[in-house]
Amino acid sequence: MGWYIGRRLLQMIPVFLGATLLVYAMVFLLPGDPIVAMFGERQVNAAVANQLRAQYHLDKPFIIQYLLYLKGVVTGNFGMSYSGRPVSQIVAQAYPVTVKLAVMALCIEAIFGVVLGVIAGLRRGGWFDSTALVLSMLLIAVPTFVMGFVLQTLLGIKLQWLPVTVGGEVSVKSLLMPAFVLAGVSMAYVLRLTRNSVAEVSTADYVRTATAKGLSRHTVVTKHILRNSLIPVVTFLGADLGNLMGGAIVTEGIFNVPGVGNALYQAILKSEGSTVVSLVTILVLVFIIANLVVDLLYAALDPRIRLV
Amino acid sequence: MSSRQIKTQSSGGPDSELPTPRHFFASDDTALLSDVDVFDESAPPSSLWREAGRKLVRQPKFIVSVLLIAVILLAVAWPTLFTKVPKNSCDLSKSLDGPSAGHPLGFEKLGCDIFSRVVNGARPSVSVGVLTTLLVVIIGGLIGALAGWYGKWVDALLSRITDIFFALPLVLAAIVFLQAFGQRGGFLGVFSVVAVMAAFGWPQMARITRSAVLAVKNSDFVTAAKAIGVSRGKILLKHAMPNAAAPMIVTATVSLGTYIVAEATLSFLGVGLPITTRSWGWQISDAKTMLRTAPEVLLWPAAALALTVLAFIMLGDAVRDALDPKARR
Amino acid sequence: MSPLSADAANPPLLKVRGLEVAFRSRRQVVHAVRGANLELRAGHTIAIVGESGSGKSTTAHAIIGLLPGTGRVTGGSILFKGRELVGLRKRDYVALRGSEIGLVPQDPMSNLNPVYRIGAQIREALKANGIDVSRSSYNALVDLVGHGIEDTPDGRLYLSRHGYHSLLEELEQRGAVKPDQEGAFKTALKVGFSTRMEVQAYLQDLGVADADRLARMYVTGSNMNERVAGLLSEAGLPDAARRARQYPHEFSGGMRQRALIAMALAARPDLLIADEPTSALDVTVQRQILDHLGTLTRELGTAVLFITHDLGLAAERAERLVVMYKGRVVEAGPSLEVLTEPRHAYTRRLIDAAPSLSSRRIQLGRQESFASGGAVQVDDAGRTGGAAAAAAAGEPVGIAEATSAKADVSVPAGGPASAAPAQAATAKVDVSVPTGGPASGALTFEEATAGHAVVLETHDLTRRFRIRGSRPGAYTEFLAVDGVSLKVARGTTAALVGESGSGKSTVANMILSLLAPSSGTILFNGVDEATLTKRERFEFRRRVQPVFQDPYGSLDPMFSIYRIIEEPLRVHHYGNRAKREARVREVLDAVALPAGMMRRYPNELSGGQRQRVAVARALALGPELMVLDEAVSALDVLVQAQVLDLLARLQRDMGLTYFFITHDLAVVRQIADWVFVMEKGRIVEEGTTDRVFDAPAQPYTKALLDAIPGGSLNLF
Lengths: 308, 329, 716
Prior knowledge:
By secondary structure, chain A is mainly alpha-helical. Chain A contains 13 helices and no strands. Chain A has helices spanning 2-28, 34-39, 46-55, 62-74, 87-122, 127-141, 144-158, 172-202, 205-212, 217-246, 248-255, 260-269, 273-301. The radius of gyration of chain A is 24 Å and the shape is globular. The N and C termini of chain A lie close together (8 Å). Chain B is mainly alpha-helical. Chain B has a domain at 121-321: MetI-like (MetI-like fold), CATH 1.10.3720.10. Chain B has 11 helices and 1 strand, in the order αβαααααααααα. The radius of gyration of chain B is 28 Å and the shape is flat. Mean pLDDT of chain B is 81; it is low at 1-17. In chain C, 42% of the residues lie in helices and 20% in strands. Chain C has 4 domains: 3-100 and 300-352, P-loop containing nucleotide triphosphate hydrolases (Rossmann fold, 3-Layer(aba) Sandwich); 118-261, no CATH class; 356-393 and 406-439, no CATH class; 440-700, Rossmann fold (3-Layer(aba) Sandwich). Chains B and C meet through β1, α8 and α9 of B and β1, β2, β4, β10 and α16 of C. β1 (24-25) of chain B pairs antiparallel with β10 of chain C.
């Protein structure tokens, strides 16, 4: 078990390095001079520009820049944004909001997706199953931003049940609508995954044996079908946390949530390379750690994995 | 088995009054003996694909999605079949006018015909989806197949590379890249969107292909081919890949839909296709400011987009049901 | 004893009349069971025998109310203890299952829930059926009333761990059990297993005066976990308390099947349905488990409905046989009588084909031809039907004797059983070797193969596998094949016999040059396979062809039959298109398949047809040696006999050499000239088929032979 974790941790390192290098390269290797961009409409002052280049190590070869950046990440120093604000401050402000949003979305997709999926899976072929499957496809087909606008207009403006945007006031109530929108597509996937998993486990030999030994339908469903069929669902949910945080960029834009997505989008628009890289690096880290947790969760839920 | 045995009705009903004989035997003609293991040449021919095709056409999902896709593809190829109004003929005086003869959906803010815009928006959206899927199948299929087939260090290396690209969410990476790359017009603009989505979309296909190839790798027919003297590369090409095709086709169909959504999202954020393409994403982005006053301007392109994506996802679902015996029942 | 009086005293436990079961698919209704009748009395065992698709499992599932998918009982009646089960409410069925009808399922690998410990899954069976092991309600009642109530049946009260130790201590203090007798005590009494009655009897045997008082004092009921361990040890699992805490994946197939038996018997049902309970297991394990199950159900008085495809096994284990074919019961009667006086054509056909029953008879002609040193063809010249004809010829001898021995199906548990087949075998030797002289049974390889060149030879073949450990870099070495030396003579069939994990398939892969040996050499026609150049190896692949076990996995489902057979021809640049097609027709004809099959796909073929296509593919290039790795093991009896006949005919016509790998000794007897017995990577015994079967030298070979189902039947 210990070595299982160890091996997973070792495999994480190249993935982390590779992913951050990729982002770093995309931001800093592409045409366009971020220093020039900083001056905007104004005349470029050569001396100031050179000083800034030195400050951000832009005068050094790319790979050195990246290594210096990595050193910063390891020591917890993300550097300064071009506007003079420490990047770590932006991170510290934005992340709690997005984590809150993503966790709420995760709960929503878990509850709705699993419950509906289990019912559909147990009654496969019935009207509930068919309806749930069609609705889940619709949920995947309607783009997040359209869903966002529609809910905003309906629940926020017409019915006035929920705040239209979040803005400065981050509360469970104000995050409820964006969390629903963010959860939408994943919820559909959870539903389908649960449904198929339940349907498959229901026909497993050991379920028939459990029935044959005299268990009631209720016990068979809760103890044998659910326990086994939810293993892949739980692992999907774990891995989805990273996706939700990365995917919050559109939702946060629509509902004006002061989270990572918004900060990232602003930074991208302003070509704030170092901020972009820092925010994405942390997202990658969250994604990788979430996947590690999933692996461990899997090992905990399925005794067959533990020996590996 | 054959259908012959079904037609013959059982003779001799339950007669519970008679005591069970010590040694019972049916007369030889109650259960006619057939020759052992005869091949029924009269049965209609069927291959796995034909069988899957038969299952496919029985599904309402498949029929609905194919009809939808047919209409969409017509709009992509010949938009003039649906509307004679050119896509860029706008008349400011008709701004936000309601439906009228020849303009079934009315006009948007700049007085452009909404129906014409929706019909003409199909081409950029769908072609980006199709091109991205093609690229993804090629890149992901190749990498996944090599990793699964050759194993060892090839697998270790390719799987880590796949992990790296998988760690970056598609839309996020595309935004970062496309923003840095800058907005380009014409073909280059379309190409950069396709390239970037394929660059971050292939890992899923690679994983699916890899596991499908792995599943085939140890089958007896692959061993048999080796024992006959077929080379490794040829076995991969002729035996492994065709057998791994089913999950690849399913994944490709479903992701075609999601790539169309992704393109719309990018265009909506202002980093997607060039504005001149007037893809559905742009139209929705355009209309969002007037959502409260004129929601239909946003809803029509959104509906078209959702319907298109739905059609492809539904098709993928139907194909999965037909190809995967485990999916149903 | 007249049958009528027996009927009155012992009304049937289960009575099935005119049972009809149908599966409804979208387009058609498939009648899986059509008018089946059967009857089972309490404490008796009957067996339903049939091939796949005969409706035997469906009948069993209908009885326990577990028909899969769209299956429904559409007619007839199932009376269990006089109660109609057709149309029974779901809730009543739940109450019935486990406590009155138990099920031992077919595949031990998939029938235990992988995420729960074994013990937990058995405990569930106890709880669900309201078995109050710990007597919590009884104790509550005692608390309420204030004194003990002498009503608990002593047969239901089990020894607890605490009671076990206290009793042992007490007996040692008294000197009734001496410290060196502790082992005997341990085997006699088991925690959660021995009842108060049994303990009392044991104490009386020891000569303890107050046995009754002691039993009452120390046997006061076990707790749930102790009872679970008791059930597992009852099913023959050693070290049960520890095993109960393990997960299914830590168990071997045989252990899992024991756990499933413990589970099915946990609530002491009156009827146990055993659905091919051991088909997935090795023969020796199969025998142990069935012996144990037989003893157990006899002790408990459980009636057993045994479902199997193996006629020999069925006759050995059951008092009555019910033969099913295409959903109908075609014959039913006392086991031996059905075997010796089959009345229905299908039963006769089944008996003729069953390797375990007919092997002796088939072997007659073959062995002579081989031992006499002549070519195989010489003796076979007059025989058209091959095995079946030989079987028919041998039959009259059997019936005469069998009629006198009827109704005497002994199911010996353990020891005595091994003697029976041996006697039968020795008796047989005299008959089977009329021409070969006295030495014929113990011929050396050279003597036996005089006139046959050696095609294949291995010397000290060894193969190690590294199994990666849990720590990086750590591995354990596993010796799969350990110094195997063997020879195969041209035009003969050599069989390599062993149980799963013996390394026999690894040997096959090395001979096929698909796997490099760790050490040792393989000579094909005298040339070392390891020294072959690329071109030579390619040529080698033309001359040595494999046929694998799984008829569903060995043909590429995407290829048409034509492409499958044509592939080796194309790869080896055989002729032009027209010539290849002609060749494909030719080999299809050789395996008795119509040419019209060329455009078909594997999914349209039955298992036997697929296997014949695999043989055709192997034949296409005109090979010298065919390596048949369990090539008929997955097939139904009749189909298996057909493929074996085909192989024998091809060998005769084309002078092929077979290297036949199998776990099934009965099949070996039918086809092989020379036998190698493999155990744990080593060849433990070899010799002519007759010698190995009639006078096995090694205990392992003896055990394998004893385990052949039907081996203990006295048919002749």
